[in-house]
Amino acid sequence: MSLVKNRRGTAIVETDHGILLVETRKGMILLPGGGAKKREPRFEAAVRELREETGLLAFSALSLFEHISYSNAHRVVWIVASGEPRPYDDAVALHYCTPETVKNFKTASPATREILNRFWEYQKEHPQLFTMWRIPNSGISS
């Protein structure tokens, strides 16, 4: 018997302060994102949920990899966005994470930690990809 995983779009947004994280009402720290609606691609769900949870508007996005966690099948999307991030919808606070500070987020979900570590490794392996897609002064203010 196979377990059916929830389809989730997960956004990675880099800022000058680190990767943007959201805190839920239950105190969990997660990457922005959420469940894909019926027939909605997970890529689109990542872009939509980022806007709903932080108010940021994506103007460039790159699908990176799939990550299977305990309960979700994540489509991880690297997003360059504009705007001033604020917590909306399911998010009650925003945080910023770097490879050096990830251990400080005690309530980060295991999937969030795994995805962040995979992303940083992926970024090391493919630096030209991120240089090519990065837009200077993306407009995110925090």
UniProtKB/TrEMBL annotation:
<dbReference type="InterPro" id="IPR015797">
    <property type="entry name" value="NUDIX_hydrolase-like_dom_sf"/>
</dbReference>
<dbReference type="Pfam" id="PF00293">
    <property type="entry name" value="NUDIX"/>
</dbReference>
<keyword id="KW-0378">Hydrolase</keyword>
<feature type="domain" description="Nudix hydrolase">
    <location>
        <begin position="5"/>
        <end position="123"/>
    </location>
</feature>
<dbReference type="InterPro" id="IPR000086">
    <property type="entry name" value="NUDIX_hydrolase_dom"/>
</dbReference>
<protein>
    <submittedName>
        <fullName>8-oxo-dGTP pyrophosphatase MutT (NUDIX family)</fullName>
    </submittedName>
</protein>
<dbReference type="InterPro" id="IPR020084">
    <property type="entry name" value="NUDIX_hydrolase_CS"/>
</dbReference>
